[in-house]
Amino acid sequence: MNLAATAEASALSADRLKLTEIFLSLQGEARSIGWPTVFVRLTGCPLRCQYCDTAYAFHGGQWWDVDSILAEVASHGARHVCVTGGEPLAQKRCVGLLTRLCDAGYEVSLETSGALDISDVDTRVSRIVDIKTPGSNEVHRNLWSNLELLTPHDQVKFVICSHDDYEWAKGVVAEHRLHERCDVLFSPSFTQIAPRELADLIVADRLPVRFQLQLHKVLWNDEPGR
Length: 226
Description:
Blueprint: H1 3-13, E1 16-26, E2 36-42, E3 62-65, H2 66-75, E4 80-84, H3 94-103, E5 107-112, E6 126-131, E7 155-160, H4 163-176, E8 183-188, H5 195-204, E9 210-211, H6 215-220
Parallel strand pairs: 2-4, 4-5, 5-6, 6-7, 7-8, 8-9
Antiparallel strand pairs: 1-2, 1-3
EC number: 4.3.99.3
Family: Belongs to the radical SAM superfamily. 7-carboxy-7-deazaguanine synthase family.
GO molecular function: lyase activity
């Protein structure tokens, strides 16, 4: 076994996760939008959504032990922490990190694709489940059993790429009565559907969902670490 493989095996055997970055910014979406938030971005994702704006997190990264992650989070002095990716649940130790963050007293959210089981995630975490629309090119990856696990503390998000996506998402909301389970967020995919068009559709249909724009894109475009 070469040195790189030995180091990888050692990291996997320890209480570590592979991270792309940890940074302080404003939460750009979901229920805690606008709050200063520490983002813990884990490396790796099994999905390839056509609109992904964090492809730089697919590969690379550095191994961090959980205590070092907690120390870095604490150094930023914010109450809100968001664990994101990539797809954070692709790393099994993510679940333990989430619990440790909750135990430390943070308001913790998890941004997950909805393709992986959320049942083991600490119920103190607000799970933001991104239901993939046909326009994402990953609709077949949705793990529909996750919807039965949602509570009022959780959120679901649809990234809408077209009018067809909107109609599909509207049908999913109605079929599963998602608005009775948790907050439902509709967000336009930048460059694919005009925000005003999506807003007008929601208003016209009196849809029981929250329209959202990604605040970080408005402020900083797709600049990493912002």
